[in-house]
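Justification of computing resources. Each target in the renewal requires a structure prediction run like the one illustrated here; the chain below, 222 residues long, is used simply to show the kind of job we budget for.
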Amino acid sequence: MASSATLSLLCSSFASHCKISPPATTSLSQFNSLSLSSSSSSSPHKLSSSSPRPTFPLLPKSSEIDSAVLEAELQAPEPDAEPLASEEPAPAALELAESEPAPKREEIFAVVMIGGRQYIVIPGRYIYTQRLKGAKVNDKVVLNKVLLVGTKTTTYIGKPIVTNAAIHAVVEEQGLNDKVVVFKYKKKKNYRRNIGHRQPNSRIRITAITGYQDYPAVTLES
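Resulting structure tokens:
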């Protein structure tokens, strides 16, 4: 009996605090009204989609633009080409000078002795020799110890030198050779010496070889 009384009290208190509503039942008329409202709300979109779209002008293609530009260039009048006042016809003498080939250098060489050493010299080229005493830059020098002169067809051999032959040259530079290192060493004596030396030299450019024509020559058989 006590348990039933407590159960009834609990049920009454639960019913007072919690009110359970019955399940909502939607009628057919309400469902139809909802469907009509949804269709009416979606109808403006359909109408807007069916409405005509604004038309935009079509842009021409790149090929059409290029063809139009080419036609405009072709139709544009070309300006008359007027000769410039600064342009002057070249004189005939200059044309002849340009057409004529440059004269070939004479094929000749010589062997000359300078300071106890022999050098092969060719006109137009330069050589390095031992320092020429008393010579300054741009000085002209004449070398007389000519041992041999050779051309394309003849050879002049000196006995011991070619008489009256001379080599003309111009001093271009007075300088020094590369450094030579002289190292001295003695074992067990604590003796070491490192010495560097640069020999003075002169650079001369050969200008001409003359005076050999009167010397007896040896003709080379072709």
